[in-house]
Write a structure and sequence with these properties.
heterodimer; A: 2 domains; two-stranded antiparallel ribbon; B: alpha/beta; Rossmann fold; six-stranded mixed sheet; 25% strand
Chain lengths: 402, 241
């Protein structure tokens, strides 16, 4: 009854039960929204579209580094691992244990590794002249150099000592064809091996003048057992990450140094940087448009409700309670819109992922609070001016119909 | 404050004539206005008006359009402030109150009834009454339903204002004005938009409130309604006639 309410009501908020107040507040907020179908739909739609774009772009933003790096890995290795060269001692390169180079390559994160192999170089004599012989893990080479255009086939196993692959220019100059036998002879003629040309490759680079065989066979022919000049690795990482991973190898393997191959890793970073920046810009523009749209809708809602705001103030609503009501209405619309927007945004991300990378975009739970936070900030920023207008309503005027 | 016991609505019904409220003390001042003036630029909407209203008194403010009735009512309801002069409400000097204090005093001590009803369109009748409770202290549906029952609208409690007639909407407004047992009820042309039947019902409600000992200030054009008050304050061109 009135007596009890007055006894508690006059004593300050601390003595008042929270439940009924919260219930009445919730009732007002929900009713105010649900009785305004068209306006609510506009605000809801604007925020949902904003949330969808923000969610899709941020999901892509965090996936794109990995997707783009994977794409760029088709351009070849991006880290070289070699014995440390002492400049004071003439700066001559020297051979290293192939097993040490392999260990260093294997220390890179396995989930980011595309492929790695040691390389051993030497000059040998073929049937029709000299050529550069390259020994490598030919099974790994296919992943490491997927851009090679190969006639015939790849050497599929790293223990295959009967086949070789020859660069196009070398094959042309020596009249070699797929299936031809070739004898590889050491320069001092102490060692030789007969192999069959399994594939002829076009690389557009120095490999077009070289002959490739598996590492163990090359070590045997060149009389360098267990040795290699360097190793190359292809990992999924952009420029800064490649720098960091290369530095970690140098720290873990004394006598070994690793460095990114700049032309590739820097290109990774530059392309990713530009795409990231573009997506951030698009997301920002969408958020600004969303803010303006929500602002226009809320301004119209406040104008429409001016008599009610005046009445609420006349019967005792404080400015704070008016502000709280509009903020709660905005936040509630935002929550519902973001929930819709996230579902739409995830679908949009899949469309973009498939269209650009032919890959599905991962659902990242962390994007949910991020999207919600950004949309809340945009919606509440949009609500500031309309709420200020609501607070400034003069009851005496609006209740007279002015 | 005026009587605020649990029988606040005991006499507020069409047929009610009895009350168990404490006997009001007319010598106790609820409204005290001294040399009250309100200027809008060069125009004096209210000029040097002095009067008092005692506890339990029913005052009618009358006068032609533009005489300052509404300006005076806005000041009395703390929706506006005088340019000069003094206004005491239930012993509180209002001149130096902050806007926040004025809001608090308005919800604690004043019940407002408007000519144009002014109900929240998306809240039902009972929820409109509960809204006044909410701003005053805490909403109590049972008490709000009781208030509606006593103005004869219990069966219409769940209806939206758009589903109520003008007379019913005005009775919801009266229930809302009374729900917090205010010291003062201010009614601005409460029958101005009603037909004769509803006018009679609303006036009967106000009479029963007067009988209960409520302090009521009624602004009206209607001489017949004015005659039902204990006293009439006539205004002309912003001054007491």
């Amino acid at each position: 009854m009135a007596t009890d309410r007055n006894a508690s009501g006059g004593g300050g908020a601390a003595a008042r039960p929270l439940g009924p107040r919260a219930r009445m507040f919730t009732l007002m907020v929900v009713r105010a929204l649900t009785k305004r179908g068209s306006r609510l739909t506009v605000a809801l739609g604007a925020i949902a579209v904003g949330a969808a774009v923000v969610f899709a772009l941020t999901s892509l933003y965090f996936d794109i580094s990995i997707k783009m790096s994977e794409e760029l890995r088709t351009f070849g290795p991006n880290i070289i691992i070699s014995p440390h060269v002492d400049e004071k001692q003439g700066g001559e390169s020297r051979l290293a244990d192939a097993s040490l180079l392999e260990s260093a390559a294997k220390s890179l994160p396995a989930d980011r590794m595309v492929g790695a192999t040691p390389y051993l170089y030497g000059v040998v004599r073929l049937d029709r002249g000299n050529a550069v012989l390259v020994g490598a893990d030919m099974a790994a080479m296919r992943a490491l150099a997927p851009y090679w255009q190969v006639d015939g086939g790849w050497i599929a196993a790293s223990f295959d000592d009967r086949n070789a692959m020859v660069g196009r220019r070398l094959a042309t100059s020596m009249g070699l064809k797929v299936g031809d036998p070739v004898t590889i002879v050491n320069r001092d003629r102490s060692t030789q091996a007969s192999v069959t040309i399994k594939g002829i490759m076009d690389t557009g680079e120095a490999e077009d003048d070289q002959i490739f065989i598996n590492l163990a066979l090359a070590q045997k022919i060149l009389n360098e057992p267990g040795k290699a000049n360097f190793a190359m690795a292809s990992i999924v990482a952009d420029g800064a990450e490649a720098d960091s991973l290369a530095a970690s190898i140098g720290q873990r393997f004394p006598g070994i140094e690793a460095r990114p191959i700049r032309k590739v890793s820097e290109a990774d970073g530059q392309i990713l940087g530009k795409i990231d920046g573009l997506m951030a810009l698009v997301a920002l523009i969408i958020l600004v448009i969303t803010t303006l749209c929500v602002n226009a809708t809320l301004t119209a809602m406040v104008a429409e409700r001016t008599p009610q705001i005046g009445l609420q103030k006349a019967i005792g609503a404080s400015d704070g309670s008016i502000v709280a009501q509009f903020l709660a209405e905005t936040a509630l619309v935002c929550l519902v819109a973001v929930a819709i927007g996230i579902v739409g945004g995830f679908l949009l991300a899949q469309l973009l992922g498939q269209a650009v990378f032919s890959a599905w975009v991962t659902f990242r739970p962390g994007m949910v609070p991020l999207t919600l936070g950004l949309c809340l900030i945009a919606a509440l920023a949009a609500a500031m001016l309309p709420i200020r207008g609501a607070v400034r309503v003069v009851p005496a005027r609006v209740l007279r119909g002015e | 404050m005026a009587p605020m016991d649990g029988t606040a609505f005991a006499a507020v019904s069409d047929d009610a004539a009895t009350t168990s409220a404490p006997i009001p003390n007319p010598s106790r001042e609820v409204i005290g206005c001294d040399a009250l003036s309100r200027h809008f630029g060069q125009v004096a909407a209210l000029d040097d008006v002095t009067f008092r209203v005692g506890e339990g008194e029913f005052l009618a403010i009358m006068g032609p359009s533009g005489s300052g009735k509404t300006t005076l009512l806005n000041i009395l309801s703390l929706l506006d402030a005088p340019t000069s002069g003094s206004y005491r409400l239930d012993g509180i000097e209002t001149a130096n109150l902050t806007e926040k204090d004025r809001v608090v005093i308005r919800r604690e001590k004043i019940g407002l009834v408007f000519q144009q009803f002014h109900l929240i369109p998306y809240l039902s009748a009972v929820e409109n009454v509960m809204l006044a409770q909410h701003y005053h202290s805490v909403a109590d549906r049972d008490e709000a339903l009781e208030a509606l029952e006593r103005v004869g609208l219990a069966e219409r409690a769940g209806h939206l204002p758009s589903q109520l007639s003008g007379g019913e909407q005005q009775r919801v407004c009266i229930a809302r004005a009374l729900i917090n047992a205010p010291a003062l009820i201010l009614a601005d042309e409460p029958t101005g938009n009603l037909d004769a039947d509803n006018e009679r019902r609303v006036m009967k409600l106000l009479e029963s409130l007067r009988a209960e000992g409520r302090t009521i200030v009624l602004v009206t054009h209607n001489p017949a309604l004015g005659r039902q008050a204990d006293r009439i304050l006539r205004l002309e061109h912003g001054r007491k006639a």
